[in-house]
Design goal:
Cytidine Deaminase, domain 2, about 350 residues, alpha+beta, eight-stranded mixed sheet
């Protein structure tokens, strides 16, 4: 993690623009809509707090898929005492144990505590519950964080989380410009050759970044079909190369069969895992979803498609497919803002 002050890139954290050229695309409509998760809590005597914290550190911290770096783990409460202690109050601490994403059933939480605490802590209390909700991340402003703290659970302000996301990104601006220049040149060539859909995409494998795969839209070619978009064709090319690679490896050294099988197994993953994708036009829903399934890392496009695009919140129906919370995988998206790479207009109704 690089300190923001030490970042070599020029980043406008307000406008989310890198080097005056790369605009981060994200869904501004749900930035401050909390993604909530139920957590298991228990109200404890403050004297027991160290024992519970130690238990959490050993048994939960590394296992829970939910991070609590932005959350106050302990919440102080003042409650009324029993009838025997009239007009008195006492302090208790409500502590987050873990999320329901880690443990679903109450009996399993009790078993974990009973089997891993030096003292039988759980028998001292009968208020274990998972009724409380906690935001899984901070909002974009301190004011909204304070609102969420009142509505849900006390949070800790650590700054706009997107600032750190932007700060942690890596960019090879020379390579980015070279590839955008190449897909622009290929797009212009396709236009001159009569292709009414001069859409070009480049696929860059992080393990083989010099051998870039370029693909074009061929839906109106002689043997083309309507789904032959440039991104879909590029994924097919990646798949074909992977088939050839595995076939070559299986034949390369039969005397070292175990080593070959291990190597193939280690490379059997999503087709475009962590790939960088560069494309001339904002992708349609089919292509955007195909990239979700392919588990790419980043996409950079030049020309937005206001009617059929599915990445920008202003495009199409505002799906923001790359960061949609209903999907189980996401990827980074940037739009090139400069005019160095002129792309011809195509019909706004065309899906890319």
């Amino acid at each position: 993690m690089v300190k923001i002050s030490d970042n070599p890139y020029k980043i406008d954290f307000v406008k989310c623009i890198v080097e005056d050229r790369l605009l981060q695309i994200r869904n501004k409509n749900d930035i401050d809509v909390p993604e909530l998760v139920n957590v298991w809590t228990i109200d404890i005597n403050p004297k027991d707090s160290k024992k519970w914290i130690d238990f959490i550190k050993v048994n939960i911290t590394d296992q829970d898929p939910v991070s609590y770096l932005h959350v106050k783990r302990l919440k102080k409460l003042t409650i009324d005492c029993t009838e025997k202690e009239q007009n008195k109050t006492k302090i208790v601490l409500r502590i987050i144990l873990c999320s329901v994403k880690m443990i679903t059933h109450e009996s399993d939480v009790i078993t974990l505590i009973r089997d891993n605490s030096t003292e039988d802590l759980i028998n001292r209390y009968d208020n274990l519950t998972c009724k409380y909700l906690v935001p899984m991340g901070n909002p974009s402003t301190k004011e909204r964080m304070l609102e969420w703290s009142k509505l849900y659970w006390p949070l800790i302000w650590r700054g706009n989380p997107n600032d750190q996301i932007l700060n942690d990104y890596k960019f090879d601006m020379i390579q980015i410009k070279n590839i955008l220049k190449e897909i622009t040149k290929l797009s212009q060539k396709e236009k001159l050759n009569g292709n009414e859909f001069p859409i070009i995409t480049a696929f860059v494998n992080p393990n083989d970044s010099k051998n870039i795969i370029y693909s074009m839209d061929t839906r109106v070619a002689e043997n083309g079909i309507p789904t032959d978009h440039s991104i879909m064709n590029g994924i097919k090319k990646v798949a074909d190369l992977e088939v050839k690679r595995r076939a070559l490896m299986s034949k390369s050294d039969l005397s070292n069969e175990h080593q070959v099988n291990d190597d193939i197994k280690n490379h059997q993953t999503y087709l475009c895992f962590n790939f960088d994708i560069y494309t001339t036009h904002e992708p349609c829903s089919m292509c955007s979803m195909a990239l979700v399934h392919s588990r790419i890392k980043r996409l950079i496009f030049i020309k937005p498609m206001v009617k059929t695009g599915t990445l920008k919140p202003e495009s199409g129906k505002g799906f923001c497919m790359h960061s949609n919370k209903l999907l189980n995988s996401k990827y980074e998206v940037f739009q090139w803002l400069g005019d160095e790479f002129p792309i011809d207009d195509i019909d706004l109704e065309v899906s890319c």
